[in-house]
């Protein structure tokens, strides 16, 4: 009972503060609803980036991977620091100078409106298939395991997943539609503080439980037994081989932090480039310490449980067994909030893409001038439609036979890397014509689908993504020699403009972050802890 009470109070407190801080924002305008008034400082930007990135999917999927393999899965978070720093240095100045609201806006300026529309549709397909349903499913799995809801309610596991998916979906929809991006960013900040405390509390109780009441003994056991699970240097047999961090993983992380609409939209809401870059650096620092929060339960589970059948339940099982009831309720509220936050950001990014890149251009083509009220109403209706689709589809992820996290990353590559490729080529080569972008998109998507789902290849999917990236770049540049673009005007960046003045200390901070990243890999390797 204590767990339910603390869960309810924590959830309601965060919702109330978010509402109170949001009521002064005009949500009846597109800028107020979709961009939080473009007035966020670096602390809110950093919190929004981390909490939008952090969802129950990671708690569920990464701990499952740690239990089955080792700490190699932490590469997704640790090495994302490199991508975040590159995005901060090269991507964000272009976005801010161009006054862009969505990342496909760059494609319209660089290629043409048709390319922008095509990429917007691919974005929306990606969110509908591989973002919103998995977020709901991951949250439902976490809540089911932490509260042991099937036995409590006297229903099956399948029925419990259905009920919780719809609960999360309805609450997330209401939160997004009524509060807009400002409410999301405020709740992100509050949840960020809570998760920081959880990063200290969960290891403490987990290790003490492992040591049967003795914290030091629990830590000793963790570091002295099953040490192969402490290894972050993945082999070819692991879910994340070490070699992939230099190929496809780097590209995927660059796409995620620099192009993914629901992530980049958090930086677009910053008041200027300086605040956006500071926020990105602070978020990168938190990514370095995120394994303490995300992956430790999986390591503890290796010592506590043998032969777990439903490995997706590892994280909720550890939390339920080790935390006191009150803290379990708070932890569940934080995981619930993390799932809602990512879901909200996905809905919000989707409605922004639809309204600004598809619906508004359609009306303008019909020589119609919509009011702000019409655009906002359309955005909310579209969010509701997507939410309904996601709530219907999410429970069926239960029947996926591969690891949950690996499944997510493999499917994401079908949508993300083709978009990333044409944007990168657009950055570096001004002669590539719009037709090359369209051919590049089609080639990459078809080739990746064949390689992953039709052919039986032994090469890792991240290496396949890197190979297809290089092939697509070659094809696009080859086309540019035959049909060079007539629009070769580059997007200039005036660094003296007040909104585009970069953060002066960013280079020093970047070097420190990269050194810390290398040290973490050395610590979690056979040279130190995994010996």
TrEMBL record:
Protein name: Solute:sodium symporter family transporter
Membrane topology: Multi-pass membrane protein
Subcellular location: Membrane
tRNA processing among keywords: no
Family: Belongs to the sodium:solute symporter (SSF) (TC 2.A.21) family.
CDD domains, alphabetized: SLC5sbd_YidK
Primary location class: membrane
